Amino acid sequence: MTQTEPVHVIGGGLAGSEAAWQIARMGVPVVLHEMRPVRKTDAHNGEGLAELVCSNSFRSDDAESNAVGLLHEELRRCNSLIMRAAEVAKVPAGGALAVDRDVFSGEVQKAIEAEPLITLRREEIAGLPPAAWGSVVVATGPLTSPPLAEAILTLTGEQSLAFFDAIAPIVHRDSIDMDKAWFQSRYDKVGPAGDGADYINCPFEKPNYLEFHAALLAAEKTEFKEWEKNTPYFEGCLPIEVMAERGARTLTFGPMKPVGLTDPKTGRKPYAVVQLRQDNKLGTLFNMVGFQTKMKHGEQTRIFRMIPGLENAQFARLGGIHRNTFLNSPKLLDTQLRLKAMPSLRFAGQVTGVEGYVESTAIGLIAGRMAAAQRLGHEQAPPPPTTALGALHSHITGGADAKHFQPMNVNFGLFPPPAADVRKEDRKRALSRRALADLAGWLGGAVPAAAA
Fold it and tell me: According to the model, what pLDDT value does residue 156 have?
């Protein structure tokens, strides 16, 4: 029997690790290429697979009424390695699924290294991969190495592949003044690893909020290099000071909204609130939710200590900014996630123009299954557009307007509408039920997975 040629996966982030796992589950060998630590990036701290460089949250885990939570459930039903590792590494986060970063990365790496059909190579692929590889999944994520990014630009004739993303600070738990702060989730909502009081809340009255807002506006920011100046931000990950520039109340309707929270010391709803979410299993580190920033480090320390409860905050990590890379996928990719200009290359993860950990994982899963099916002599049909997986896939392979394409999180607006007789208040539940039923049909018609 002729041995099946391997699929090569470039990039050991969430999408690449998931793609490699799915390919191996279908009985096809994989070579997973990860450039760290041979070549480091501006955002990663270590060399572990699937390292989380921004938030530690996978966002809502509500599969009935939230598109992200539905995507979680679909991934679980597809035997996702990333969701399996998240289950082991989860920490309290209200209605969200959040993880201990180190435990999560360790679980992914352990599974990849233990899989006999996966070969992990620590090397940079500088430029386009060799034609002899035949089948390649490019899952290099938001931090694609410059030589590979330039090769893709040349191949596609595009002028730009980049936008900016920002990182939120992390605070040592024991440096937070709990005489001023308190634990509570918005509306006391309980999540997969929590008890309804999973966030630390730091409250503002109006005068000190306005002083804090003015400080954000006046802060020294990171200077961009000339070649970076026209790079746009992804709207869902704006720096806190960029949001502040849009008006004094913008933050109070965004990451600092006090809705569903009551200060137990006053019995009142604060004017604004900074929430911190547990970042590791031990509960010793908390990240500042929505506080990604491009302020200089000295300014971050000074200004963030203006937050009630954080006057003596010690920071395990300050915020930062890095340049992300994504394709104009509706223009450049076919429905099998292959590059039209070079069909031996598939793309997966954030580089395809999806935004978020689980969205990147989802496209990695789909690309992996499609690549494995092709090696086995089949063609894997895309997931139905009525599923969260399929809605994302449809969006990046033709559903979005190529002229104005920007990274997108999963949301119910990407789904075909439910039946006309569904009441408005039942719409999300109906979409979720339909999605899971249609996913079952897709999985039943998929190439059988190898035994786990």
Answer: 85
Residue 268 forms beta bridges with which residues?
263
Helices 357-375 and 14-25, interaxial angle, to 10°? 30
Three-class SS state of 394: helix
What's the confidence (pLDDT) of residue 228? 45
- 32 contacts 112 by C-beta, under 8 angstroms: yes
- Lookup: tokens for 18: 């998931």
Per-residue pLDDT reduced to its tens digit, 318-353? 887 766 678 889 999 999 999 999 999 999 998 998
Digit-coded pLDDT (tens) for 346-378: 999 989 989 889 999 999 999 999 999 999 999
For 321, residues 6+ apart whose C-beta sits below 8 A from its C-beta are 164, 165, 166, 167, 222, 239, 292, 293, 294
Structure tokens at 167: 């990182």
Q: What is the pLDDT of residue 2?
A: 45
Q: Average pLDDT in the 177-190 region?
A: 88
Peptide bond before residue 169 is cis, with ω within 30 degrees of 0: no
Collapsed DSSP state (helix, strand, coil) of residue 216: helix
Q: How far apart are CA 358 and CA 97, in angstroms?
A: 11
Find, among 67, 99, 247, 278, the residue nearest to 171 by Cα. Answer: 278
Burial (CB count <10 Å: 0-12, 13-18, 19+), residue 288: buried
Q: Say what the pLDDT of residue 1 is.
A: 34
* Per-residue model confidence (pLDDT) at position 248: 94
From the list 396, 428, 359, 407, the residue with the least C-alpha distance to 83 is: 359
Which amino acid belongs to residue 338? Answer: R
Encoding tokens for residue 231?
């790079």
Beta-carbon contacts of residue 98 (< 8 Å; ≥ 6 apart): 55, 56, 57, 58, 90, 91, 92, 193, 277, 278, 279
- Burial environment of residue 66 by CB neighbours within 10 A (0 to 12, 13 to 18, 19 or more): buried
